[in-house]
Design brief:
By secondary structure, this protein is mainly α. Among the domains are: about 30 residues; about 80 residues, Arc Repressor Mutant, subunit A (Orthogonal Bundle). It has 7 helices and 3 strands; from the N terminus they run H-H-H-E-H-H-E-E-H-H. It has a 3-stranded antiparallel beta sheet. Helix 2 crosses helix 6. The mean pLDDT is about 90.
Length: about 160
């Protein structure tokens, strides 16, 4: 099967190898998926990064998480978690507090407004995931997941 990426990129020369073609395919696909999800989140006035942070905090439950813990769990690395949380707090989507036992720590928690916003997005986001993966059989989907995990584990 001849790859379509060369045509999509309007590239005249062949790739330097399958490894380059693989890498560029992953990057092109990631950009495509990010654009689709960005468009889905736009009416909620959320970026993909903000959505990711809210989901992390929802998953953390009532105890919340410190900034560093949120950063460790992010899909994409965010250089300024504090500013990201500032924006979410300004919108009332999260709260932050300093524990009595450690005044230097700051714990972020999702607010009820943030939980409600995510709840309203759960079905459309899941439908989006299903649509993006819809062309793949379950076997191919599992294989793709395994291959992507193998690539990430290679470093």
């Amino acid at each position: 099967m001849v790859g379509k990426l060369k045509e999509e990129l309007k590239q005249r020369n062949d790739f330097q190898g399958l490894e380059e073609e693989m890498t560029l395919n992953i990057l092109k696909t990631a950009e495509f998926v990010t654009t689709v999800i960005t468009d889905l989140l736009r009416p909620a006035e959320l970026t993909v990064t903000q959505y990711n942070a809210l989901r992390i905090l929802r998953g953390a439950g009532e105890q919340g998480l410190m900034c560093g813990e949120i950063g460790e769990r992010m899909i994409t690395k965010e250089s300024d978690i504090t500013r990201l949380l500032d924006r979410l707090e300004t919108r009332g989507l999260i709260t932050r507090e300093r524990p009595v036992e450690n005044r230097r720590a700051v714990i972020a928690k999702i607010s009820s407004v943030g939980r409600d916003l995510l709840a309203g997005l759960d079905k459309p986001v899941m439908a989006c995931h299903k649509q993006l993966a819809g062309a793949l059989s379950l076997t191919k989907l599992r294989s793709l997941i395994d291959m992507l995990e193998t690539v990430r584990a290679s470093q």
